[in-house]
Amino acid sequence: MEVLLNAYFSYQDPEILVGSLLGGSYVNNHNNKFAPNVELGQMISLSIDNFIENNPICQKSIDRLSPRARKYNKTILRLYYDHFLAKNWEKYSEIKYTVFCDDIITVLKNQNDFFPYKPKRVANRIIRKNLISKLSSINGLNEYIQDMTRYNSYNLSICEAIGDLVKNYESFSNDFAEIFPEMEKAISTEKNTL
Fold first, then answer.
1. How big is the chain by its Cα radius of gyration, in Å?
2. Opening angle at CA 46, ends 81 and 96, nearest 5
3. 94 phi and psi, to 5 degrees?
4. What is the chain's pLDDT, residue by residue, as a tens digit (194 residues)?
5. Which DSSP state fits 83?
6. Residues 132, 105: contact at Cβ < 8 Å?
7. If you placed Cys at 119, which of 76, 85, 115, 160 could pair as Cys (CB 3.0 to 4.6 Å)?
């Protein structure tokens, strides 16, 4: 569960946030039987994926990943971008990061019964370990990744992705700084059409 980008773009409504955290993978699996705001959140998550897939700078970032990591390239890049968003939070939001994290944890607690089994396990670990608040450091991101992969079927390459980040840290950071305003604009425009 890549959490911070989704939460940033879905913060205004708990149902939208839940849908965004579920991501697009649950749209077809559940035959679209979610509430409209949950589906809107899922569409926001898909919009983030589409932006990453189609943006040339994001593709340049993906090319920096080691070949074994490329199968999970969007997931890894989203995790890197979660880190850079957390690290540079004050540039992008007027809400204090600690307040934002507390609000997300509250939503995860209040909406916990809504999540299907696997996402609920991830949400519960995020709550218990307050993992969102740790994303601003490389060690915190690594802890998040290790925890996320412990109970999921992700390949070990995601666990090793922190090495690619450290090796090319400045380049990934520059890519994020360049694309994020464009991503904000694209997602905002897309949300208005949904």
1. 16
2. 45
3. -85, -15
4. 678 999 999 988 888 888 888 875 555 444 556 778 888 888 899 999 999 999 999 999 999 988 877 778 888 899 999 999 999 999 999 999 999 999 999 998 998 887 777 778 778 888 888 889 999 999 999 988 887 777 665 566 677 788 899 999 999 999 999 999 999 999 998 888 87
5. H
6. yes
7. 115
